[in-house]
Amino acid sequence: SSWGIPGQKRPSRTTSTELSIDGFDTVPESGSGNAVLTADGFTLPGIADAETGANGEFHTHTMKVRVPQDAVGDLVEIEAQVSLGAAGSTLGRVTTTVKCIETDKSVSQITSISADTSRTLKNLLSLTPLSGAGTAGNTLEITFERTPGDGTDTAIYAALHVHSVALKTRRATNAHRSST
Length: 180
Hints:
The chain is mostly beta strands and 180 residues long. It has one helix spanning 50-54, and strands spanning 16-20, 31-32, 36-38, 41-44, 59-66, 71-84, 91-100, 105-114, 117-129, 139-146, 160-172. Strands 1, 3, 4, 6, 9 and 11 form a 6-stranded antiparallel sheet that branches.
């Protein structure tokens, strides 16, 4: 078969890959519990008060980002550099949720962080489809939650520190102008 416009070259296919959205993790957003924004990321602490902790302390940190103009697919992935200063065989557990505000759809993943982890790159949300993540200008809300001492989070008194966050979306890699 031949291209349908005489004298015009067939346009190339747009290739794509998962690329990080730059800079959004440096903008402070909201949090709850005793989550703390630091010069080097944010911290989801362990139990601060034994009496309150027995009833379940809950810490969250939230950030928002706009989907870039070169987005081409509804896929998201979260990687973060994390530290957990606990000792022994304890684990910290973080729930990562990405929600598209415009579609009201969300995806989540629970990830365990081993004791004595220091600035380790962890996948906190595997590459996952999310309705609206491929629409330029949509708002993605990323929330990190921790309840120390709940379930498999056995690093009860240790702080889980997130140094940097990379949100990856499917984006065009060979943007080009059409030839006329």
